[in-house]
Amino acid sequence: MSEQNQDRKQELLLLGQIHGMVQSLKDGQDQQNRRMDRMEQRMEEHYNGLDTRLREVEKKAAVAGAVSGGAVAVGTALIVEGIKQFVRGGGPGLGN
Fold first, then answer.
1. Taking the chain, what is the end-to-end CA distance rounded to the nearest angstrom?
2. Keywords of this protein's UniProt record, alphabetized (predicted)?
Protein backbone atom coordinates (compact mmCIF):
# COMPACT_ATOMS: atom_id res chain seq x y z
CA MET A 1 0.00 0.00 0.00
CA SER A 2 1.29 3.43 -0.82
CA GLU A 3 1.92 6.02 1.81
CA GLN A 4 -0.86 8.20 0.38
CA ASN A 5 -3.37 5.33 0.62
CA GLN A 6 -2.26 4.60 4.17
CA ASP A 7 -2.65 8.28 5.13
CA ARG A 8 -6.11 8.29 3.55
CA LYS A 9 -7.04 5.14 5.46
CA GLN A 10 -5.82 6.71 8.71
CA GLU A 11 -7.86 9.86 8.01
CA LEU A 12 -10.98 7.78 7.34
CA LEU A 13 -10.48 5.86 10.60
CA LEU A 14 -10.12 9.12 12.54
CA LEU A 15 -13.18 10.56 10.83
CA GLY A 16 -15.10 7.40 11.76
CA GLN A 17 -14.02 7.76 15.39
CA ILE A 18 -15.01 11.43 15.42
CA HIS A 19 -18.35 10.58 13.84
CA GLY A 20 -18.93 7.91 16.50
CA MET A 21 -18.12 10.36 19.31
CA VAL A 22 -20.40 13.03 17.85
CA GLN A 23 -23.20 10.49 17.41
CA SER A 24 -22.72 9.35 21.01
CA LEU A 25 -22.92 12.95 22.25
CA LYS A 26 -26.05 13.52 20.15
CA ASP A 27 -27.69 10.35 21.49
CA GLY A 28 -26.86 11.39 25.06
CA GLN A 29 -28.28 14.86 24.48
CA ASP A 30 -31.46 13.41 22.96
CA GLN A 31 -31.87 11.14 25.98
CA GLN A 32 -31.32 14.07 28.34
CA ASN A 33 -33.89 16.13 26.41
CA ARG A 34 -36.46 13.33 26.74
CA ARG A 35 -35.80 13.13 30.49
CA MET A 36 -36.21 16.89 30.84
CA ASP A 37 -39.45 16.80 28.82
CA ARG A 38 -40.85 14.08 31.09
CA MET A 39 -39.82 15.98 34.21
CA GLU A 40 -41.34 19.20 32.87
CA GLN A 41 -44.58 17.38 32.08
CA ARG A 42 -44.75 15.88 35.61
CA MET A 43 -44.08 19.29 37.15
CA GLU A 44 -46.77 20.90 34.98
CA GLU A 45 -49.30 18.24 36.00
CA HIS A 46 -48.35 18.72 39.65
CA TYR A 47 -48.69 22.51 39.51
CA ASN A 48 -51.97 22.29 37.58
CA GLY A 49 -53.36 20.18 40.42
CA LEU A 50 -52.11 22.67 42.98
CA ASP A 51 -53.53 25.54 40.98
CA THR A 52 -56.97 23.90 40.88
CA ARG A 53 -56.96 23.32 44.63
CA LEU A 54 -55.72 26.85 45.28
CA ARG A 55 -58.55 28.30 43.19
CA GLU A 56 -61.08 26.46 45.34
CA VAL A 57 -59.46 27.81 48.51
CA GLU A 58 -59.46 31.33 47.05
CA LYS A 59 -63.16 31.07 46.16
CA LYS A 60 -64.06 29.93 49.68
CA ALA A 61 -61.92 32.70 51.19
CA ALA A 62 -63.64 35.29 48.99
CA VAL A 63 -67.09 34.09 50.08
CA ALA A 64 -66.02 34.04 53.74
CA GLY A 65 -64.56 37.54 53.37
CA ALA A 66 -67.73 38.87 51.78
CA VAL A 67 -69.94 37.34 54.47
CA SER A 68 -67.77 38.57 57.33
CA GLY A 69 -67.47 42.02 55.71
CA GLY A 70 -71.25 42.21 55.41
CA ALA A 71 -71.68 41.15 59.03
CA VAL A 72 -69.20 43.79 60.20
CA ALA A 73 -70.98 46.44 58.12
CA VAL A 74 -74.38 45.54 59.62
CA GLY A 75 -72.89 45.42 63.12
CA THR A 76 -71.25 48.79 62.64
CA ALA A 77 -74.50 50.31 61.34
CA LEU A 78 -76.36 48.95 64.38
CA ILE A 79 -73.76 50.33 66.77
CA VAL A 80 -73.82 53.75 65.08
CA GLU A 81 -77.62 53.80 65.19
CA GLY A 82 -77.53 52.79 68.84
CA ILE A 83 -75.12 55.62 69.64
CA LYS A 84 -77.33 58.09 67.76
CA GLN A 85 -80.37 56.96 69.73
CA PHE A 86 -78.41 57.20 72.97
CA VAL A 87 -77.24 60.73 72.18
CA ARG A 88 -80.71 61.91 71.03
CA GLY A 89 -82.38 60.41 74.03
CA GLY A 90 -79.99 61.99 76.53
CA GLY A 91 -78.70 58.75 77.94
CA PRO A 92 -79.71 55.19 78.69
CA GLY A 93 -83.33 54.46 79.43
CA LEU A 94 -84.55 57.92 78.44
CA GLY A 95 -85.35 57.12 74.79
CA ASN A 96 -88.77 56.77 73.11
1. 128
2. Coiled coil
